[in-house]
Each structure stands twice: as structure tokens, then as C-alpha cells.
Amino acid sequence: MVKKLALLGAGRIGKVHARAIAEDKRARLVAVADAFAEAAQAIADASGAEVKTIEQIEADASIDGVLICTPTNTHADLIERFVRAGKAVFCEKPIDLDVKRAEACAEVVRSVGGKVMLGFNRRFDPHFRAVRSAIDEGRIGKVEMVTITSRDPGAPPAEYIKVSGGIFRDMTIHDFDIARFMLGEEITSVMASASVLVDPKIGELGDFDSASIVLTTASGRQAIISNSRRATYGYDQRVEVHGSLGSVAAENQRPVSIEVANKDGYTRPPLHDFFMTRYTAAYAAEISSFLDYMEQDAAPSPSIEDGLIALKLADAALKSAREKVVVTL
Amino acid sequence: MVKKLALLGAGRIGKVHARAIAEDKRARLVAVADAFAEAAQAIADASGAEVKTIEQIEADASIDGVLICTPTNTHADLIERFVRAGKAVFCEKPIDLDVKRAEACAEVVRSVGGKVMLGFNRRFDPHFRAVRSAIDEGRIGKVEMVTITSRDPGAPPAEYIKVSGGIFRDMTIHDFDIARFMLGEEITSVMASASVLVDPKIGELGDFDSASIVLTTASGRQAIISNSRRATYGYDQRVEVHGSLGSVAAENQRPVSIEVANKDGYTRPPLHDFFMTRYTAAYAAEISSFLDYMEQDAAPSPSIEDGLIALKLADAALKSAREKVVVTL
Amino acid sequence: MVKKLALLGAGRIGKVHARAIAEDKRARLVAVADAFAEAAQAIADASGAEVKTIEQIEADASIDGVLICTPTNTHADLIERFVRAGKAVFCEKPIDLDVKRAEACAEVVRSVGGKVMLGFNRRFDPHFRAVRSAIDEGRIGKVEMVTITSRDPGAPPAEYIKVSGGIFRDMTIHDFDIARFMLGEEITSVMASASVLVDPKIGELGDFDSASIVLTTASGRQAIISNSRRATYGYDQRVEVHGSLGSVAAENQRPVSIEVANKDGYTRPPLHDFFMTRYTAAYAAEISSFLDYMEQDAAPSPSIEDGLIALKLADAALKSAREKVVVTL
Amino acid sequence: MVKKLALLGAGRIGKVHARAIAEDKRARLVAVADAFAEAAQAIADASGAEVKTIEQIEADASIDGVLICTPTNTHADLIERFVRAGKAVFCEKPIDLDVKRAEACAEVVRSVGGKVMLGFNRRFDPHFRAVRSAIDEGRIGKVEMVTITSRDPGAPPAEYIKVSGGIFRDMTIHDFDIARFMLGEEITSVMASASVLVDPKIGELGDFDSASIVLTTASGRQAIISNSRRATYGYDQRVEVHGSLGSVAAENQRPVSIEVANKDGYTRPPLHDFFMTRYTAAYAAEISSFLDYMEQDAAPSPSIEDGLIALKLADAALKSAREKVVVTL
Which PANTHER family does the UniProt entry name for this protein (chains A, B, C, D) (predicted)? Predict the structure, then answer.
């Protein structure tokens, strides 16, 4: 049976999911809600859905699941509301900027037995998945060290920074999740160095734009994350995992892979410009995974617990960077 | 206005086009015809089209264009029939295995002022297009030499070989078109060496499975084509253009780009398994280009003339390989 | 005038330098000293030098310079002895395992105005130098972040570990120097996570075999170092520098660069097996630089001060890893 | 015993060999002859050899072997003279520009049982050798198709072109040899297209600067050669061999392998500037192989017969290009 889905939030990421749903035969987008009516209408028009209020969606028994793509400060409320309404919930990261609020939300989900999947899209990237598969197949032996390079093409505007929760909760949170996905063990200590090298305005807002983080697990496995809000050559997204028998790495992706050779050397074009193009396949696979989850009773990946842990790692990194201490979890 | 399209032929390549149409908002597949009813029904079901006969499609004034994906020996007849019916025609290569028949068909198209675009999908591959753009932007100066490597993962079955017209008309025909697309000048001489190295059955049918072809233009520009019906590592599709100021090359494509390093070295996965996955983006762009052509009066690329020339080059290559002569056009 | 050099220590690295001297027309190896007579004789035979005692070398006024390639615990004494003898000194890293002893040695060098160059060979690697040149030419703008991957093919024997001073003083010390070489600013804080993942015997000796280190400068520039005593695919030596206008990376090197493609994918051979082959060109350039230094009065690079700072960074990393604190310098 | 060698011809390639001999402990350069005294003296000075006349070298019984690096029109005479003098001969390609003269020379060598090795340096390149080893180890199965890309950085001066014997005898001759080295079967037919695209002066001298050649063996194996006298990005030297189980390719080589990424993309430096730097390791291995040959009685590779065959292929290619025919051998 085709699953009927509703989209809450018609912004940039909402559009990405609407497109992914349109290309999946197992789902149909039937409703879109957004405080900004025009944005909702645009997606509705493009996908054959109807513009509805959140209340209407909540009350509509024919709707099987919702995708929460609204501003972060509404995530926890909406998760609770829709698991109580009996709908499967897909929610963009993070659950909330506040760990306590996020924990309370997770408790509600547990208590009502709600179905919630978190939007860490990178787990679904075919290249990152292939890295994970190589690990699972034993091709590199026991995992020892993970290196994640994650750089945005450019810094977001000040308005975004203000509500983002800071670089660790907004940007590194994806890398924390990927680190855990690859390490195969829980992280027990965090150390982070962070500074303002890209844009002084980010510093004025109390945030950082450049960070290096080391995560360590109980058995001593280590993950390194290198973050910057600037990469002139495109969206830099690499993962490398080093193990007892070898290494496996996911290379950067570019829309066009040609190479021009001339007296100045050999030049390949820049990388994808940002996540919408870099992770197109990941978003499609993410929706597909959400539909699998709706149909089955297996645990979701990533789960709301994964969201909680990533958030705690972000808080630990912030504390480490600010107070210049190693934070033990 | 959304263009209404009909698909003639519901085989492998028909399915590819149906999928591309489904993802293009400017078009809608409304009818599918195939001698094998089940195949037509399957595509119709998946795309919301109806199964119709060729006669019904021909008579349906609401249908704007047709895609001819039927067996080769029906192409010329169907092109003539549908340009006479006033419909825009997209036809898979080749026009016909016989140059005379193809020329007569082209003459009909000209006389009725018909709109025909040929299905040389590789012109629409984003990587090959980027090579062409690099040339057009003057990045490599004046084109001098083109090298095309084009190898199928495996040999087709004998039944296919029998009706294929042979390696030059079936497989190299794409490379002839790409060579012309890159050379920017007409070819005036052809030499080919061909042999049976992959499968003796192909030789028993009078065909070849391995070929090396050199094309030369009036000003002395040269193109080399290397063809094989076997490539254990996937669908090998490369183009390199050498000019007075530099070179530009389109690299091979693989579905997943990871690299595993261990004591045996560094290993990346095989290439795409064949054209359906390798040229997904090309097929989408091809349909989009057909829609552009339907909407405008600009000359199509590739045109039926391009189809004719490629066919003549195939015949020349066959003569060269069989008679061990250099063929001047 | 050809410079006459003496080699103190005829072990693995001594042999490497003897070979480099043999290929440089500006120098001649005239004497070799080693407690193990056969080793000294072998190098002497191969290079046309004579076996001598340290005393003889010290007393020989015709000898212009010495290369100290003896065990670490003799370095400081020999440096002091030979600068006092008025000879130019090239000394393998580290100056000493003890910072105090190293500082005292540096003080002696300063007081007698001695000429000492430290053996951080990687500064002379043509690829790493090219990275530095790209920085100096402004191609990546202001340096922001450095990533160093440095993994040995395999763990050394326990006897070596015992006298090595531990992973930070023995192995990471090279990476500390390269980090400084690339950062262009002094490091003000160090944090390190270290564990035993490769060989439990290393742990029993109180050392680590896997480490992740983050270095930060006063202005907030960051360097990450990833170290392991195991890399099944060869000697993994990469540097990447990220700046305000772009990035520059030195790729890994392999003795043979072919690629085999088959049904299992595309495979390139492993990397160089260790430093003797990986850094052949670096060792030659290092000797050449030492000869330049002997002829001129410019400051050496790397200097004994560079050696001191690297040692202090090693101590800081060890403290950070053991005590789980961020160490401020 | 160290072999005493004499160098006939102190030009560019003579210097290359003198340097290779200097680094090989099994040989010593004892004499250098050249009509241009200063050139001979320069090499003699650098290598500790003496300047001698050809007559003196011929008469010196202590000299074990000679390297003929004189102008092409003296090769055959000198080969004959020195095999008659009982010396091992290493001769740069080609034996002569005239096949008849070359055959007569080969006959003299056979009749006196002379030791002659031809200077096809590329057989000794570690990357090309590794390609050949991969074939020999069965990693790509039965060889089917070879693709050789061989482009010089720039066209030589007119004076060189005049005495060069033309592009096929001067430049492609190396590729003919490598094609045979990889094909593992004798070539039975040749077709070539050649033109003047780089420098009209080359055309005025009756030569070509751009050529595409297809070679075919009796069993139908094919080799393609792409030649140009211009490659703005450096000395382009690639070989790819396609077989029944896979492919193997030797990649281009560059002196420095860094990559700079910025808003314009990812750029690696140009290739080596020409053969002296590209084939440094090959020249060393070539001398080593000549010394092996001097010490043993095994057949040389490449032999004078290999030189003869390459010359015949050059003549066949010239005939094919000029007369527009396929030439059967």
C-alpha cells in the first residue's frame, strides 16, 4: 500500500524531501504545512499535495507519516504531538538544541511506543554506506581510527548562525553521527579545538567557524573530525576508516568528472556546491528507509537515541572548546 | 503546455525513456505500444499511460510526439509514418541497417518538413558534454586528436548479434557520432582493424567483437576508437580530446566511489554495469532536449543527418576491416 | 671545494645518508665510525671512506662536518663535542629524549656559535616542499587547518620501543615538525588521545601505538595528526593544508603506479614500504641543504631550535594523552 | 669485476647514460669520444673518464663495452666496428634509417657472434615493466588490445627533423617496440593516418607531427598508437593493455604530486618535461640490464632484431600514411 505522507515545513530541506517522495513509488505526499503559505503552495503544486494546517494533518487518519522540516525549536513539540497522533515521524536533526528537552521528547516517544526516525542523511549516502559495508564485510579488519573531513562551501548568514545552536550542534552533529556509525563503539571522551578563522561576525555571535575534534571510545578507537565553514572548492565531505587489516575511504563527489590538462597542469572541476546536490541519492535512500521502517518493526537507523547521543557529543565538544578541557562522557 | 508522448516499443531502452519522461515535468507519457502486450502493460502501469496500437497513436491528434524504440528494421517505416502524421519523432539509432533505406527515410523527413531527433544518448552525458564545452570555451585550443574507448561489459547473445547489423552499425555507431561531436569537422577517411577475440560464435555469425578504428578529417584531425565486446571491470566509456593548447578527458564512472587499501594495494569498485545505469543522466537530458526541440524551431542535435553519417561511417569501417583497405568518403 | 664528511653511526639511517652523500658532487664521505665494526666497514667499503674512531674524526682537521646517526642517548653529547671541535653538525632527531638535556645542548651550541642542522627529513620531500611552496605563493590564502596522516607500515620490535622515548618522541615528532612547517605560527596548545590498538606488547612497555593529536596556534589555526604503527597498505604519509582561498594536499607515493582493472575493481599497488624508499629524494635534498648551510651563513632549516620545540610538543602530547588534559604551552 | 665502458657520443642522451653508469657499482665509464671535444671533456670531467678517439677505444683491450650515442647515420658502422673489436655494444635506436643497411648490420653482428643490445629505454621503465609483469602473471588473461599514448611536449627544431628519418622512425619507433613488448605476438598489418597539425615547417620537410597507427597481429590482437609532437601539459607517456580477464594501465608520471583545490577546481602539476626526467629510472635499469647481458649469455632484450622489426614497422606506417593503404608485413 502506498504510504500517505505529510510535510511539515516547506523550506529548503522540505523541498528536498518532497522531491525524493515524488520519485518513490511506495509513497505519496498528500499534505504540506508551512507558516509561509506561498512556500507550502509551491511544493503542493509541484507534488500534487494539498496545503493543510498542522491541526488538519494531525486529525487526518489517512495520513500515515509526517516529515518534520520546520525550525529546530519546534521539532520536539511536533515529534511528541505526532507520535501521540499515531503517525510515523521522520524528523530533521537536531531533536532540540537543549539536551534536557530532547531527552524529555525521547521519553515521550518511548512511553507511547512512537515510531521516530532521525534525519541524519549521510548514513544513506551510497559512498558512506559502501564504506560501512566494507567494514561490515571485514575488509579492513577491526576499526581503529576514523577521519572525517566536513567543510561547508561557505558560512551561513548571521541570522542562521543565531538560531543554529552553534557549529557543533548545527554542523558537526552530522559528523558525530557518522563517526559513531563508523566506529561501531560508543564514544567516551571528547576534545575539541575551535576558533574563528572565516568570518569575525560568527565570533561576535559567540560561535566558531573552524573546529578540530577528537573522539575516543572505551577501547581506544579514535575519530578525528575537521570542520570549516569555508571550502572554496565546494562541499568537502570525506570519510576514511582505518582498521587492523586496511583502510577504506569515501572520496569527494563532483557533478562533472572531466580533467583538462594544459601548461598549468591537470584540472578537475570543483565539488558539488552543497548538500542538495551532493546528497541527492542519500535523500532518496533516506525516504526509502523511512518507508521500510513504517512497514516493519525493526529499529530505525538513525533512531531518536542516535539523535540524543549526537546532541550530547555536541555539548561535550562545546564545553571542551570553550573550557579547554577533555570531556569524559 | 505539457507535451503528450507515446512510446513505441516497450523493451529495455523503452523502459529507460519511460522513466526519464516520468521525471520530466514538461512531458507526460500517455500511450505505449508493443507487439508484446505484457511489456507494454508493465510500462503503462508504472507511468499512468495507456496501452494502444500504433494505429491508435497515429490517429490520436492529442499526442505531440513519439519515441521509436522498436526493433531496428521498423525504424525507417515508423519515422516516415509519424512525421507524416505530424508528430515530433525521437528515434533510437540506427535509422536502418541499410544506408539506402536510411537515405530514403531522411528524404521523406525533409520533404514533409518532419521533426526528427536521433537517439545518440552519449551527446547528453554530462561528462561528455563538459568535454565538448571545454572545447567550445577554447580551453584546449584547436582540436587535433580524439581518443574514444568504448567497451561493453560482455558480448550480447547470438540472437542479438544476428539482427544487430554487426559491431560497427550496432556499437561503434555511437562512437562515430561522438567522434564527430568532438572533432568539429567531417570525416574523410576510415580505417579499421577488426577481429574475433571474445567469442568465436560472434565470428561464426560473420561479425567481429574487437575493433580499432582510425578516422581522419580533411584537415588531418584524427580520431581513434577502441571497441571490445568484453570488459570485465564494467562499462568502459571514455573520451579524450587533444588540442593545440591542451587536452580534456571524461573519466569512467562508477556507482560507488570508495577505495579500500590493504596489503594487496588500493582497490576501487568496478564501473557501472551497463548503459542503463551509466547513462541515466544522459537519458534524462536527452528527453529534455527532445522537448526543447518540440517547443522550438532550432535544428535538432543529433539530427537524422547525423544518423545517416554515422551509418555511412559504419559501412566504411566494415569495408575497411573486411577488405583491408583505407576507405575514403 | 668538496666538503669532507664523517658519518657517526652505521645503522639503517646512516646507510641512507652515505648513499645520499655518494650521489652529491659537493661532498665526500671520508670517515665512518660505529661501535659495530662490520657495519662501519660495509659503508666504508661501499663509499670509499675509512673506518675511524670518534676521537680520530674529532681530531681530524680536514673533516668539515659530521652526521650523527648514532643511538638517541648519544646525540646531545656528540653535538656538543663536535660543535666544540668546530665542525658542522647534522644530527638525526631527536636531540635527546629529555627536554632539559636537549635545552642544555642547544645552549652549548649557541654559546660556541656552532653550526647544527636537525634531521627532520620530511621538510625536504619534494611533495611536501611543493605544498609549502603553494602556501608561500599564496595559492591557498591564509593557512587555517593542517591535516597530517602518518602511519608506519608496521610496529617496531619491543627493543626499539623501549629506547624510543615513546610514540610521540619517536614518530609524531616528525609530524609536529611538519605541522609547524605548514602552520606558519607557533603552537600554543596540544591535545592528544592515544591508545594501544595494534600490539599489546607496546602497551605493556607503557607506550601507545595509535594516536590522534590536535595542535592549536595563538590565532586559532589548527593541525590534526593521525598516527598509527600499522598500515597494511604501506607507509602512509599525507599532508593537507586548508586555507582561506583553497586547499593543497600531498598525495601518497608508490614505487610503481599501474592500475589493474578486473571483475573485482580497479587496483593500484601498495605504497612505498617505509622511509628509506619513500623519502629517497628527501634524503638527497637534505644532504644538499646541509652542504648549502655549511657554505653559507643563513639559518638552518630545520634548526636545533626546531628540534627543541618538536620535543616539547611531544612531551605536551604525552601529558595530554596520559592525564586527559589540554596542555597549554 | 667492474666493467669498463666507453661512451661514443657526448650529446644529450650520452650524458644520460654517463649519469646512469656513475650510479651503478658494476660499471665504470673510462673513455668518452665525441667530434665536439668540449662535450666529451665535460662528461669525462664529471665521471672521471678520459677523452679518447674512437680508434683508441677500439684498440683498448681493457674496455669491455661501448655505448653508441652518436648521430644515427653512424650507428650501423660503429656497431659493426665494435662487435668486430670484440666489445659488447649498446646502441641507441635506430640501427639505421635504412632497413637494408640495418639488415646488413644485423647480419654482421650474427656472423661474428657479436653482443648487441638496442636502446629502447621504455622497456625498462618500472611502470611499463609492471604492466608487462601483470600480463605475465596472468592478471588480465590473454592480451587482446593495446593502447599507447605517446606525445612529446614540443616539436623538435627543423635541423633535427631533417636527419630524424621522420616521425615514425624517430618517435613512433619506441611505441612500435612497446606495442610488441606488450602484444606478445608479431605484427602482421599496419595502418597509419598522419598529418601536420602542430608545425607547418614539419610538413614542408615532408614529415608529419600527428599520427594514429593501428597494428594487428596474426591472431587479431590490436595495438593503437596515438602520437603528437605537442603536449602542453608535459611528456605524455601512457600504456594500457586490455585482456580477456581485465586491463592494466601505466599512468602518467609527474615530478611532484600535489593537488591544489580552489574555486577553479582541483589542479595537479604538469607531467615530467621530457624523457631525461621521465625515464631516469628506466635509463638506470637499462644500463643494469646491459651489464647483466655482458655477464651472461642470455639473449638481450631488446635485441638488434627488435630494432630491425621496429624499423620495418616504421617503414610500413610511413607507406600506409602516404599511400593510404593498409600494409601487410
Answer: BINDING ROSSMANN FOLD OXIDOREDUCTASE, PUTATIVE (AFU_ORTHOLOGUE AFUA_2G10240)-RELATED, NAD(P)-BINDING ROSSMANN-FOLD SUPERFAMILY PROTEIN-RELATED
Question: Are A88 and A150 in the same domain?
Answer: no
- Nearest CB neighbour to C265, from listed B262, B263, B267: B267
Which residues on adjacent β-strands are paired with residue C179? Answer: none
Instruction: Find how far residue C212's CA is from the centre of its chain.
Output: 19
**Burial environment of residue D202 by CB neighbours within 10 A (0 to 12, 13 to 18, 19 or more):** buried
Please check whether residues B93 and B143 belong to one and the same domain: no
Same domain, C62 and C85: yes
Domain boundary among B56, B89, B114: B114
CB-based contact B233 C268, cutoff 8 Å:
no
From chain C, the residues in CB contact with B263 under 8 A are 232-233, 270
The residue behind cell 529499529 is A299
Question: A5, A20 in Cβ contact below 8 A?
Answer: no
Q: Which residues in chain C are closer than 8 Å to B266, comparing Cβ atoms? A: 233, 267-270
Q: Give kind and range of the element (H or E) at residue B284.
A: helix B280-295
CATH number of domain containing B167: 3.30.360.10
Chain D residues 137-176 within an 8 A CB cutoff of chain C = 139-140
- D-contacting residues of A 248-267, CB under 8 Å? 261-267
* Whether residue B278 sits in one domain with residue B243: yes
Does B61 contact A at CB distance below 8 Å?
no
Give the DSSP H/E element, type plus range, for residue D230: none
- Does one domain contain both C44 and C181? no
Q: What residues of D are in contact with residue C265 (Cβ under 8 Å)?
A: none
Which residues, in sequence order, are bridge partners of residue C68?
Answer: C8, C91
> Looking at beta carbons, which residues of chain A come within 8 Å of D263?
232-233, 270
Query: Mind listing the pLDDT tens digit of every residue in chain A (329 residues)?
Result: 899 999 999 999 999 999 999 989 899 999 999 999 999 999 999 889 999 999 999 999 999 999 999 999 999 999 999 999 999 999 999 999 999 999 999 999 999 999 999 999 999 999 999 999 999 999 999 999 999 999 999 999 999 999 999 999 999 999 999 999 999 999 999 999 999 999 999 999 999 999 999 999 999 999 999 999 999 999 999 999 999 999 999 999 999 999 999 999 999 999 999 999 999 999 999 999 999 999 987 889 999 999 999 999 999 999 999 999 999 99
Contacts of A197 in chain C (CB under 8 A): 142, 144-145, 219-221, 244
Which of C114, C135, C167 corresponds to the end of one domain? C114
For residues B85 and B185, state if they share a domain.
Answer: no
- Please tell me the total count of domains within chain A: 2
Cite the DSSP H helix spans in A32-155: 37-47, 54-59, 72-84, 99-112, 126-136
Please tell me whether residues A184 and A286 are part of one structural domain: yes
Please check whether residue B269 touches C, CB under 8 A. yes
Quote the domain boundaries for residue A29: 3-114
Residues D201 and D101 in one domain: no
What whole-number distance in Å separates Cα of residue A301 and Cα of residue A293?
9
Q: Which amino acid is at A49?
A: A
CATH code, domain with C32:
3.40.50.720
CB–CB contact A193 C191 (8 Å): yes
